Amino acid sequence: MSLATKYNPQDIEDKWYNYWMNNNYFYSIPNEKEPYTIVIPPPNVTGVLHMGHMLNNTIQDVLIRRARLKGKNACWVPGTDHASIATEAKVVAKLKEQGIHKSDLTRDEFLKHAWDWTDEHGGIILEQLKKLGASCDWKRTKFTMDADLSEAVTKVFIDLYNKGFIYRGYRMVNWDPSAKTTLSDEEVIFEEKQGNLYHVNYKIEGSEDVLTIATTRPETILGDSAICINPNDERFRHLKGKKAIVPIVDRVIPIIEDEYVDIEFGTGCLKVTPAHDPNDKVLGEKHNLEVIDIFNDDATLNSFGLHYEGKDRFVVRKEITKELEEIGCLVKVEPYMHKVGTSERTKEVIEPKISAQWFLKMDTIVKPALKAVLEDEEIKFFPKHYNNTYRHWLENVRDWNISRQLWWGHQIPAYFYGEGVEDFVIAETIEEAVKKASEKVGKEFKVEDLKQDPDALDTWFSSWLWPISVFDGINNPENKEINYYYPTNDLVTGPDIIFFWVARMIFAGYEFRQEKPFTNVYFTGIVRDAKGRKMSKSLGNSPDPIELMEKYGADGVRVGMLLCSAAGNDLLFDVELCAQGRNFSNKIWNAFRLIKGWEVSETIEQPQSAKIAIDWYQAKFQQTLHDLEKSFDQYRISEALMSIYKLIWDDFSSWFLEMVKPGYQQPIDAKTLKSVISFLEDNLKILHPFMPFLTEEIWQHISERTPEEALIIAEYPTLVEVNESLISNFKIASEVISGIRNIRKEKNISFKEQIEFSVLNNDNTTTDFDKVIEKLGNLSSINYVTEKVEGALSFRVKSNEYFIPMGDAIDVEAEKAKLEEELKYTEGFLKSVQKKLSNERFVNNAPEKVIAIERQKEADALSKIETIKASLNSL
Question: Cα 729 from chain centroid?
Answer without folding.
Answer: 41
